[in-house]
Amino acid sequence: MRFLLLLLLTLPFFAQADVCSPLLDYRHTALRSSETVDFCERFRGKVLLVVNTASQCGFTPQFEGLERLYQDYRERGLEIVGFPSNDFRQEYSEAAETAKVCYVNYGVTFTMLEASSVRGSAANALFARLEESGAGQPRWNFYKYLIDRDGRVVTSFPSRVEPESPAMRTAIEGLLGN
């Protein structure tokens, strides 16, 4: 009887552990792939850096810093997701060109997705939720959103903030803990 009572009392805890944050309840096709990235499945319990990218932007070299961040912190639970977007008219219309810039020119190994809109009424569901959460819309390419392990937006960084800046590293390290 005690075991049954204990089981009934702990079930809500275990059930809650499998609940996905509404922000991460999202799926998107990976860049140049038929794979669908399920954010709940892949990123639950991780610190997540979401970045809207563009392959023909003055900030495109930030891919190098993003990749270094990923290499430095992925073992501790950091994931990075790039969302190519032509909202600012600086992304290739062909996914093959975008993939070449990311994978060949910059050696990106973090998750990159197929191009989508990240602003306004056409924004994909994740970016619409980021705006609804109070984090705002990207003002330009390479706007960065930092999301904690519970799927809550912690802060955002404008395009001019370099991925390896002390402010960004401090924020990431604070969320990763030991």
Automatic annotation (TrEMBL):
GO terms for molecular function: peroxidase activity. InterPro entries: Glutathione_peroxidase, GPX_AS, Thioredoxin-like_sf, Thioredoxin_domain. GO terms for biological process: cellular response to oxidative stress. It comes from the Bacteria. Keywords: Oxidoreductase, Peroxidase, Signal. Residues 1-17 form the signal peptide. The active site is at C57. It holds the Pfam family GSHPx. Residues 5-177 form the Thioredoxin domain. Belongs to the glutathione peroxidase family. This is Glutathione peroxidase. It comes from Litorivivens lipolytica.
